[in-house]
Amino acid sequence: MKFACPECNLGGEIEDSKIPEGGAWGTCPKCKTRFNVKRELPNVNKNTPAESTTKANTKIDASNESNNNGWFGTSNREQLQSALNYRLVRKTLELGGLFHMFLGAIITLIGIMGIAGNSHNVAIPIVLSVLGVIYIVTGVWFFYSPSVKGMLVNGITFVLLGICLIPFIGLFFIPTLIGVSLIVTGSRSFERYKRLSKFHFKKPLEETINMIDEYVKAIAKVKAKEESDYIKFKTTTFASHQTWKGKLSKNEIFIADNSGHDVIFATKDEIEINKIRKSLIGKNIKVSFRIRDRKLTGSIAPEFLNRYEGWKKVV
To answer: Rounded to whole angstroms, how far apart are CA atoms 85 and 88?
Structure first.
């Protein structure tokens, strides 16, 4: 594979077999910069601003089946999707964990202050203190040991807290708005738990997660209308409205939602987009989606639907 110094761009070559899985460190003979060279990953496309984690101008593409390292350090598609599922759980629970730890700290502080300032009736402050500690411990669990079960607990705690704030309807706008948002967030966590609980997956290599993160960031930077091998569409469920962007490769599509958390890798046979009803010229078309195990409804612009249909026809 070819590589280049990230500082002076001096190029060189090295056999893939001589590069260990974690990469190899080298020193540029021209500028003396020390940098890491990792095994080459295939290209997104020549116009996509995606760089490898080595910052050595190595571009990435999930679809190259001839790469000896497979997809992002995994050996097959199922391992890749397993890594994507784990990444979704971790991304969701990282945010949930921070929220729980923050909320737990506030509740605990209120409880401690109540105990210190009320020597006659300390039952409620004690309960608040215990509840706060539980929230903190739960947040730490979410953050450092993400699991599908954590998604369920995350959904329950968000919904319960949201329900507690709903009685403020008509009295205070902000608590009510926060309550509704928490219920929606919790419902989304339930949706993800229901889908992901059907799968068995284990923690992938951290290098694999980092590679996926870099690829998703590269896709996010691309303007789909300006690239002929990208599509963009929207899906709607009870708990969420998501905008997706997909990179069309020869036989696969790599799709990421607008948050960058939910990512799907599918072959041509694993994705179908069908019209539900026609629309006016220039308007988005109402469609149904089947993407691997998911069945969704949403909309897509005519130009992106045409790109998808053209891609499906190519053998």
So the answer is: 5
